[in-house]
## 1
Amino acid sequence: MAPKNVAAFAAAALLAGLIAFEGGRPVLAQTQPSPPKAILPTAPSPAIAPVPLVPRPLKREESIRDDRPKVETSAPRKGAPPIVPTATYDVGVIPGTGWCPAGSELVWIYMDDEDHNNANSASGWIGATVADNNTRFIFCRVDGSKFAAVEGAYAVLQLSAQCPPNSFSFSRYFENEHNNNQNTYSGNISPNNQYETATGTQLFFCLFVPNPLLPGGSFPDLGMEYGVFARNLPTSGLASGHLHIDDEDNGNGNFFDLPYYAMGSWTTQIIWGTNNTDISIAKVKNAPPPPPHCLPKLTRYDGVPVSASWDNQNCFIKHVVAGATPFIWNNAYYVTADKSQTCLPGTGNWDFANCKFMPKPSGGFLYHDAFYVPPAAGNVCPTGMTINGPNCVIAAPWGTHAFEYQNTWYFTTLFTCKDGSYDSANCHIMTAPPSVTAFIYNNAFYYHE
């Protein structure tokens, strides 16, 4: 027999009847008697129509155990849910894709559904839920205190000991496949449970009932596309879907707890069924738009900020100037410098390769791009050199370099830049911020975000 855990307030809820509003807050109050079993709602159609339930022949329930070999989706063995502390009002919402935003735990619950003549079906928007011959519910753990009443009833998975304020807990027990059951889960699913001996799954939900004083309520932005369990959300619903779950045929022990019935059509329009289970799902938030691309600015050689533009893959900066040889160094953009045929005044004469300055004098030496020689008597220096401390010196002008070849002193011709500014070695164009990666593609400068 499947366990039937019922919340302490269930009896009081059943005695009190349906929920009403006092001062804008939902409370349990005397109204009409609760229905003896789950019934489909008769509320008017929502603005976005629920996915219709397609009629199909009912499957005859098995009277004997099905012991034939089964083919199962691979899944690890289940175990008892861990006792893990959670936030006060954690709940689970249905993500549009199989990921959760930073700070939100991904939780999933896999139910091994009936094997023989499985009649599972799904239609419309069900988010990341996997519905084939078995069912894998996928949830993102979020702060339930962010949720409030909207124009229609909806539920989220309960993931804490108590539901958020102004919402009410109820549960559904699913009798899963008896033969070689593969139920399993991932993450902290408490208070939900999968029972080892009963091969069943019990899911707890937090129901938010519609508040007529707050018809314009909305769902919180959670940084993702997500949905909830709901059928009739004419204002906040963006898409709707439906799951039909074929629960175990033989010895089926499906049940709802008493609070489910106390809520009347608010719960029966969301989840219903006897030996099988039907669930309504609604998407309530689209994924947020991606942030603008190429926001980080580059710094040009002269300190001026430079913007890049998005080309649908990376951030384009500019094409390399014609004839230049580009390269990246230390996340900065460069081109090699060009050697001209111009000898700056005082650096010697052009010899069709460099600027010949003078034969190396006795005692002369090269140090840090400058030539040095001891002065003659009376501190007289060679032509073009000036006294500087104990020596006569001439330094290479900016944009040139000093070197010695075959006992002769030379200066290079002036280096020029087709783009950027000469930095004594190459032509620096601009530097990318550390948050991006500079690269060159097809003779153009880019960065990758």
## 2
Amino acid sequence: MRRTSVDTYLLELNTRSEGVFADGAEDPHYILQSTQEETADSTRPIENCSGEPLKKYDLSRRKLLQVMGATTLSASFPIGEVRNSGVVDRDAPEMSRIPKIALELSRAGPYFATGTVDEAGMRRVKQLGVNDVLMGGPPIPWLERDLRALADKLKTGGLALGNMMITGFPKTLYGKPGRDEEIEKVQQSIRAAGSVGLPVIEYNFYAHRLVEGYYGETGRGGAGLTAFDYDRVKDLPPLPEEGAHDLEEMWKNITYFLRAVIPIAEESGVRLALHPNDPPAPLSRGSQQIMGSVEGWKRLIDIVPSTSNGITFDCGVTREMGQDPEQVCRYFGSKDVINHVHYRNVRVQAPNEKYTEVFIDEGVNDMHRVMKELVRQKYSRLIYPEHPRALDYDRERPDFKPYYPGGGGYAAYAYNVGYTRAMLQACLTTLNEISAGPSV
């Protein structure tokens, strides 16, 4: 009998086989993938995401439909348990794992491109087919009741909270007296996040962020782009409240921090994601940057080896540093420490020093290959198509306030989301002629 129910579908997704949705730890061949990428060679066989030829029985119409529907169904599937150092990892779907496209909402306050956590803001996100959101967190320490109220409010709009940014520990950054009190507040916040099922907490560890080097450029049709030039700002002096800090000092400070908070994150079932230095300039007002190189990213995860001690993989920053995002994604994905993803494109004139953030479809990054690698790694957390470009439609709004020079608003986010979903769907279907096979 040919089975079509969602219950049967879920059962099949959890059954190990050689087919499309095999989900064993040693079997990465779970998603169909066309081989007609960057080639006109039509004689090549259809392959899976690992580059191996697909068998005919892998290509039944039923399985193809399952793959095509995976992105829509994933938001409503129940949560499964994945063991990690004896704790439950709440963010692993029971189906074959795929990224969840997310947008940012503001908790409250001034203008934000996609809106705030109110009915209008939630409708804006939901209308783009996005079911997951991220946002900046409240002042530390976070309280369980506040996080639960926020998550419950989002649920009324059909949205799930998947990531919050934590800030407010400058003494920890600079190794000053009083950092232990700050770290205790961070620990309390992690416990609160774990108690409400928030899977990821993102953070930064800058001595200074060199945003002074950003400026606007004009792109296609007069659209706004965001550029960075280190020469403009390389001689800026340290700010009195920050000072200048060398690399080993910053490593010492983050090591102290991680050894205090990662055990709490593991106990709470929460993953931390450190965002790379962006811009990844060699010096930022006299301070060196621990996350301004892939070598720094690798050093970070070795301080406290744990899936709770991970990174935000930003394929834009990766390219800004002169690295190949596909290879970098493979390295960190294989270690299961990609805890959040920023998905954007860039053109680079000089690595780390001069580049332009462009439309997601026109930069140096091959965004399809980046997405394909995330799918290969079974990455299942949030992917944020950030840094929208400035479109006239957004700029004509009287309340338009871009976050960066050349940055955009809601219409540009809609474009980014559509492009990201197209890349995801391209990795979940075949582009060659599909030969129907027998049901399993």
## 3
Amino acid sequence: MNKKQLSESDICDKFIRPAMVAAGWNGMDQLYREFPLRAGCVVVRGHKAQRDKSTVLRADYALFHKPDIPLAVLEAKDNKHAVGAGMWQAINYAELLDVPFAFTSNGDGFVFRDATLADGVLERNLALDEFPSPQELWQRYCAWKGWTDEVQRVAAFDYSPSKTPRYYQLNAINRTVEAIASGQNRALLVMATGTGKTYTAFQIIWRLWKSKTKKRILYLADRNILIDQTMVNFPFVRRTGQQIDRIIKPLYLAQDDPTRIHDSWRSVGGQGEATAQALRIAFACAVPDCPPLEGSKAYPAYQEIRDDLLSAGVEVVLANDEASVVAFAGAIDRDARQTPSFRAGKESADAAGVLGAVSAASAAARCTAG
């Protein structure tokens, strides 16, 4: 095989990815091909607007310790280029993801740039079979950060199952969680309108709360809609003793992967993968009150998702059908939902779980399916 005749994509598939997998990297949740960094500039001409494709940034490979905890980037080139030809791009991508490790490859080997200078060497050449394992890079990363075992545990704690954060959201969330886990009591995040401040705050709250770093968190906002946006991200539950018997999670039928509602079950219940039988007993799904119109382009997707949930025995109700939501949750006093105190997740026991469920469903009712 003449490597010079292979495209960059062929080099990735035949040489680079197999070398990383052989080193112990999991192709499902540690290696991400064409990882998006910047969507590109929007160019407006008259009444039309479109992305300038020349300004789109994607890393050939992003390497993660676990989902949403980045470690390194890799820039690939075809074999007509030198092995280190893409290093300037890799360095730029590594800075955007706030990671110290960058790799380049043309299929013959790797150039490894370690900005931690753990052994005093900035760049070195590696053979294809010398690619570092995930454990080795993670240990180097933690040593460079100077983390204690407890800080490492919190900093590596799982995100709430959701959409993939943008690179700057990852940086904001990970840096804030790391700082608080290290004992810092104050942190200020400044983010522009439309950059996902509510989502970022939610993920910080989730990770600090679920890792038991913080037991109680006060969330303040200047508008009710901002509170609602955050609350619908939490799965609301009702417990009988230590046993979860009801879960209500609003489902946005336009989200990338609606099956992620199963992840919410795992994150709340800690019961492992939920089966259809478990969902049949313990799960309600509140969908937006304004589904796509029959005959629209979005309607077939809506119908398919709804039918799949129903066939699995998952109860599906419209978010504004408060009677059905309250009936499922087993509420006795419907007026109790007006109580201004809500508790989410594992703290939402008995009536509080019902309050949270109704609040989440009500918030979802104001959203439309895209």
## 4
Amino acid sequence: MVNKSERIPPYFVFFLVVKVQTGTGVLGFQRLIMHSAGNDAWIAVIFGGIVCLLPIWCMFNILHSHEKDLIGVHKQIFGKYIGGILSMIWIIFWLMLSIAAYMTYAEIIGTWLFPQINILPLSIVFAIVIYYAVSGGFRIIAGLCFLGVILTSFLILTIYFPIGYAQFHNLLPIWHHSIKEMAIGTKDMSLSYLGFSTMLMYYPFIDPFKKAKKWAYMGNLTTMLFYSLIMVLTIGYFTEAQIERYIWPTLNFWSSVKIPFVERFEYVGITMLMFSIVPIICLTIWAAIQGTGRLFNVKSKKITFLYLIILIAFSLSLNSREEVNSLLNFLGNAGLYLYLVYIPALYFITLIMSKRTKKGRDFHEN
């Protein structure tokens, strides 16, 4: 059981969901989606957000039915060994999400701010910050997510500057792409929405958990509206031919921001995004650490050191844009199956088990 002093109120789930879904993906998701869905990409973004409501609903029902985190659910349904293997898949997935978030941000720093930067010292500094936050417990991480949302929310105001140059007739005609193209665009958008599955591990820390469902839905829908707004502006600001040339279109938006006391606002934006990246890394790596500790009964300090060493090792081994893209594509495809296939399947198994248990109880009572 989690001590009451370590729990957080349900409304914090809103900030946990919003923050884990809005990281460096905000800077470059447009190009990938528009490659498939063109000027209908904003519809694919909305579809992606709506589709995410299904696994969120399933997660809440699974957790409410078993009153355990994912590790406990797996052990109860599948047993120690098969359940342990399934739990390890999720642990590796969360760990890889944290690595992908860091690698993307490090690549942006190396491309836009410091082209000659040595990645090792930067990785060590990040690892120290992450270790300090994770060692403080889940409440510290939840607080970082809250601050991350608050401190970076002003960046949405920067859309005012490119709006004057946008040609919103680029949105027309609406829905002239095939269903297959829209489906591919929706799938490509899935990576930006990943991360809310950490809810499967911080379930015991929410008090009361039953009231958290509406906040999770609101968080997901807020993220969907945010991404949709950015996408609509991107379609108006760039042509489909232009967007293919930009890896991070949002940074090009920020290049158009003209403030008397700031010469290059994109530098400010990239720096402020650190308040988004650190909470995402902390939350996803915490989920992996929590899961490993619960699965193998190992002290979290040892696991934290191990996973941070793995993060640093990956930061040194993935040096090219192609390698980072391969990692992101793998996580996007893996997340699609875990969220839209495995989670609903786990819910149906839980539903069948609960009905059998209820029938057995009624039989013995009669």
